[in-house]
Amino acid sequence: MFNDTSSPLSLLATRRSGKPRDLVAPGPDADQLAQILAIAARTPDHGKLAPWRFVVIGQDQRTALAALIIDAYRVERPTASRTEIEALDQFAHQAPALVVVLSSPKPSHIPVFEQELSTGAACMNLLHAVHALGFAGGWLTGWPSYSDTVRDAFGEGHERIAGFLFVGTPSRPLDERPRPDMERVVSRWRP
Ligand SMILES: Cc1cc2nc3c(=O)[nH]c(=O)nc-3n(C[C@H](O)[C@H](O)[C@H](O)COP(=O)(O)O)c2cc1C
Fold first, then answer.
1. Ligand 1 mean position to 109 CA, how many Å?
2. What range(s) does the Nitroreductase domain occupy (predicted)?
3. Is 162 exposed, middle or buried (0-12, 13-18, 19+ CB in 10 A)?
4. Domains and CATH numbers, the chain
């Protein structure tokens, strides 16, 4: 269906996520990351509220991120196993580039639901920009996204972590995942 590999449609059709643990250097340089974030911000947004924001976590900050997540986890689950802690440590260290996307709803007559939809769209745009530059991205939430302590390290009480978006170069071919049967997700309205 998307045979013309030079077409923009083909670019959209070939995007797929990489597992963040399989993403290695090179990651985007500073200019490329700025481009990625500019595209992410170019997102449908009812009321021009920019109800999202992006927090870039540097490679040199991963140890601090791991400590933040692990300390928060231990407070919530004092009997955490070594395996659980190692998984959180690995979470914080994977992939060369990392952007935390925050849902940051603004006081407005625009429903929060619509503002959150815009945040999801910003994440998707970010992943498309990543792909257009020849990298792969992975959008993870997991336990850290739902921890108020972790959220407080990046944002304020009314904000939520929409995801940790990891970016890098795949160290192995990306898996394609089954896509929905279009007949199940598309229908024609029959009034
Ligand atoms: C909001 C959100 C959170 C996600 N969190 C996780 C996660 O924590 N762990 C995971 O394995 N996949 C997670 N995923 C799924 C992957 O990001 C990704 O969509 C999927 O692995 C492959 O889909 P793709 O190739 O179309 O991008 C999440 C997806 C979304 C939209």
1. 30
2. 14-168
3. buried
4. 16-57+94-173 (3.40.109.10)
